[in-house]
């Protein structure tokens, strides 16, 4: 077989083995209205705390579930509910990951889930909004606010489901929820960074 033929075969093989790129829209007005469910495989809740004033130390939660009601023509009417399993907490230290589930920290045995339920959505710009809601963590409910940015929407080329994605950020104080171990040496302020993927339901 000639070199050209080999290259052609390799190109065909690569093309058939690689999924097509998603055809996403970035204009929020073009998003399909409806009810969406969180896609847990690509939804992550990251958190960071200042460790003894030296470094920002990060961890994450996964296996998140929840629903989003979305209408791009009426963004202020959107509704979001999220459930976060505390046992999904993960850090780069196995010892710390285990400790965070104990009674001195999140007490996962007594409070297995954290939840966030939106109470208002205020558009602040194209594809951006402030989402306020009730966060329940460690048995305590407080009103918290997230800054949310729309990233894109379209059909996922792998599972063929219509998906919409957002990026969100916020700051909470863990002492507000009774999680006070090592404050102030490990900061009371907790920075949140959330990657949210939602799949449209039929």
From TrEMBL:
Keyword Signal attributed: yes
Stretches of the chain forming a coiled coil according to its record: none
Residue intervals of the Lipid/polyisoprenoid-binding YceI-like domain: 35-199
Pfam family, one: YceI
Gene3D superfamilies tied to this protein: Lipid/polyisoprenoid-binding, YceI-like
UniProt keyword annotation of Signal present: yes
Alphabetical list of InterPro entries matching this protein: Lipid/polyisoprenoid-bd_YceI (IPR007372), TTHA0802/YceI-like_sf (IPR036761)
Stretch forming the signal peptide: 1-22
Keyword entries, A-Z: Signal
PANTHER family in the cross-refs: PROTEIN YCEI
Name the record gives this protein: Polyisoprenoid-binding protein
Biological source species: Endobacter medicaginis
């Amino acid at each position: 077989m000639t070199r050209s033929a080999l290259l052609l075969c390799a190109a065909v093989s690569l093309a058939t083995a690689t999924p097509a790129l998603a055809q996403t829209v970035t204009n929020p007005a073009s998003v399909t209205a409806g009810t969406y469910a969180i896609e847990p495989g690509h939804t992550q809740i990251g958190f960071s705390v200042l460790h003894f004033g030296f470094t920002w130390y990060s961890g994450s939660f996964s296996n998140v579930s929840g629903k989003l009601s979305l209408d791009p023509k009426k963004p202020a009417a959107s509704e979001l509910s999220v459930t976060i399993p505390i046992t999904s907490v993960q850090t780069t230290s196995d010892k710390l990951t285990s400790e965070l589930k104990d009674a001195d920290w999140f007490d996962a045995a007594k409070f297995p889930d954290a939840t966030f339920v939106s109470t208002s959505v205020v558009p602040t710009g194209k594809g951006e909004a402030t989402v306020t809601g009730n966060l329940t963590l460690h048995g305590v409910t407080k009103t918290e606010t997230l800054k949310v940015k729309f990233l894109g929407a379209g059909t996922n080329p792998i599972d063929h489901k219509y998906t919409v994605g957002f990026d969100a950020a916020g700051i909470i104080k863990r002492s507000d929820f009774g999680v006070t171990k090592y404050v102030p040496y490990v900061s009371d302020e907790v920075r949140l960074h959330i990657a949210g993927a939602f799949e449209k339901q039929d």
